[in-house]
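[job 4417] fold queue: 2 targets
>>> target A
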Amino acid sequence: MHVTIRQLDKAISLVCCPHRGPYRQIGQAFDALDSWTSGQAFEPARVFALYYDDPSATPPEALHSAAGVVLPADTPLGEGLERAEIPSGRYAVLLHKGPYPALEVSYRWLFEQWLPNSGETQIDAPCIEEYLNTLHDVAPQELLTEIWVPLQAR
């Protein structure tokens, strides 16, 4: 596995469908968001998930996350949707290849191996996943997902 450090110079604005509960059930929020976007006259430019809580320290039913897409800034929000922002700053980015359930292995390596030995410090901001393709495009073993961990500025 390989981690790169990415400097995000400008915040990314999102339209999000919030989710409460186990992170593995965020697909419900993506389904709702996809249903809403499919009725619009535009295609999302990028697709993200924001994970606000530490699942090792927060009960599954209390976890807060959001499914998000990049859309034009003047897009009116549908019912139950909200705006969110991925802040500018430094991120450790790990590219995961494979099915979504296997992301747990990449997260474990990132937080148990790479981060403690990297000299980097995670800050209190959501971890992010960016989905570079989807099951509509490729087989599960070909899925590409970037995991972004927010880092302290240097």
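>>> target B
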Amino acid sequence: MSNVVVYGAGGTAGSRIVTEAADRGHRVTAAVRRPEALTWLPAGVKVVTGDATSAQSVRELATDADVIVVAIGGGERALWRDAAENLVTVLRDVPNPPRLIHVGGGATLLTPNDTPLLDEPDFPDEYRDAALGQADALALYRSSADGLTWTYLSPPPVEFHPGERTGRYRTGTEHPVVDEGGRSVLTYEDLAVAVVDEIENPRFENMRFTAAY
């Protein structure tokens, strides 16, 4: 059993991670900017006001945490970079810092030519700022998170949606995991399974991984 803090607990990914972790017996703290909006919490989950870009928030919640999960959303590029930078800066000064699992973007995965999907000429403009922010966060972890234990999880770049929890998935590292038809597909429910599996049985410390069927 771990003490798990989930930033972005009210979002599509974060809510499912909270539920999966609580269902599997972990002590979960749901950190959100508007706690009054959370009315669905599983029994035993603690809800607090929290912001991954706030040094005070991270410092307070890190004290008793074994793992911090970042599952925040938004469309501004600076958000993910600021959150990652704040977490790395604060956790360096925390005795026995918790592990960090960042749910990032699929657009940072690589094409068969080993270039980021977000650099493709047909990448949709409406998703570019978010994709660049997630790329900034991944680059920061890789360059500046010495002394910390972090994991960055990229979902499939396109076919990623709410659906059934199957409890199964396959993993990769830099390229999308595809099926026999060339599709990379995962539900948010099984993304949550992958996150909690990584909490319970770490396999991708200080690296990025991806998951799909």
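[job 4417] complete. Note on B: The beta strands are 3-7, 27-32, 46-49, 67-70, 99-103, 150-154, 159-161, 170-172, 185-187, 207-212.
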